[in-house]
Amino acid sequence: MLHGPGQSLQLEHIDRPAAGPGQVLVEVEACAVCRTDLHLLDGELPDIPYPVVPGHQIVGRIVSGGEASLPSGTRVGVPWLGYTCGTCEYCGGGRENLCDAAAFTGYTLPGGYADYIAADARYCFELDAGLPARALAPLLCAGLIGYRALRMCGEARRIGLYGFGAAAHVLAQVLRFQDRPFYAFTRAGDDAAQRSARSLGAAWCGPSTESPPARLDAAIIFAPVGPLVPVALAAVRKGGTVVCGGIHMSPIPEFTYDLLWGERKLVSVANLTRADGLEFLELAARIPIETQTEVFKLEDANAALAALRAGAITGSAVLDIGGSPDA
Ligand SMILES: [Zn+2]
Ligand SMILES: [Zn+2]
Which residues have C-beta under 5 Å from ligand 2, the single-atom ion? Predict the structure, then answer.
């Protein structure tokens, strides 16, 4: 439980939630840790309704409340997008990720750093019951947001990934599967991230201060570092796209127009749609994507967050919360 900006999480006993109308009660098996959780801890997201339980990459089993389509025992994933209004111009236009009234798991709705969560059944994804929960959890945000960011790159072939953490290590496997070369940019001296990128088939990897050996068709910035925007724009060819994949970024420094000239595009990715989720999870099973995880206990959530902040996680940090397979 997070009680205010800049605080550590507190381990607390709270009442088990009850499934309301349209909701399912999910016994959480695992919840992956996302950089957005750090932005929540640091009070960098607007209007945080303290106290809040973080966590939006949740894998668990339904224990009650499911309709016929999601009976008890069903393995589900609960993602960041927890509710949309269904009637606004964004929802009506296939862009529910931008819904004005959207609610988000582990932010404006209770999250999955917990034993149980009540979630709107319409936003849950059914997941493979045979795979370890810890391996599936990072797909629910790192994977999904990375995939939406990739879709923004259109038909681009040579793709730069700035920040080689949880999202990039999933997306690298998609790119390899699609036979698109990728170029991994890490912090200078981050040997672990560079090793990880090479092992996943990077065509090149190096610090973001270096130019890649080829002009990029597109770049995705996962690191929350505004100064990477002009760096990435300088690395993409005319007509190329730079996608900002995070929910928060430090200020972007002033840059000259020639970096954007030549019909380069600079866009952000916000949230996900359920259609993204279905499409990506189907693809992830087909590839199949193997996530690298570092597992922590729920009571060690602060240590997991500190390790993520320090750049000490290869792949994704995941909280192993238990849950019983026959629940
Ligand atoms: Zn996330
Ligand atoms: Zn809406």
Answer: 84-85, 88, 91, 99
pLDDT digits (tens, 9 = 90+) for 116-151: 999 999 999 999 999 999 999 999 999 999 999 999
Of all ligands present, the nearest one to the C-alpha of 88 is 2
pLDDT in tens, 16-73: 999 999 999 999 999 999 999 999 999 999 999 999 999 999 999 999 987 777 899 9
Distance (angstroms) between ligand 2 centre and the Cα of 145 equals 19
Q: How confident is the model at residue 326 (pLDDT cuts 50, 70, 90)?
A: very low
Taking the CA of 83 as reference, the closest ligand is: 2
How close is the Cα of 98 to the center of ligand 2, in Å?
A: 7
Q: Which CATH number among 1.10.730.10, 3.40.50.720, 3.40.50.150, 3.55.40.20 corresponds to the domain 144-268?
A: 3.40.50.720
Residue 132 Cα to ligand 1 middle (Å): 20
Ligand nearest to the CA of 245: 1
* Per-domain residue ranges of the chain: 23-140+272-320, 144-268
User: Homologous superfamily of 23-140+272-320 in CATH?
Assistant: Medium-chain alcohol dehydrogenases, catalytic domain (3.90.180.10)
3-class SS letters over the chain? CECCCCCCCCCCCCCCCCCCCCEEEEEEEEEECCHHHHHHHCCCCCCCCCCECCCCCEEEEEEECCCCCCCCCCEEEECCEEECCCCCHHHHCCCHHHCCCCEEECCCECCCCCCEEEEEHHHCEECCCCCCHHHHHHHHCHHHHHHHHHHCCCCCCCEEEECCCHHHHHHHHHHHHCCCCEEEEECCCCHHHHHHHHHCCCCEEEECCCCCCCCEEEEEECCCCCCHHHHHHHHEEEEEEEEECCCCCCCCCCCCHHHCCCCCEEEECCCCCHHHHHHHHHHHHHCCCCCCEEEEEHHHHHHHHHHHHCCCCCCEEEEECCCCCCC
In angstroms, what is the span from residue 274 Cα to ligand 2's centroid? 13
Least confident range of 87-101, 231-245, 313-327: 313-327
CA of 295 to the centre of ligand 2 (A): 36
Nearest-ligand number for the alpha carbon of 269: 1
pTM for the complete prediction? 0.94
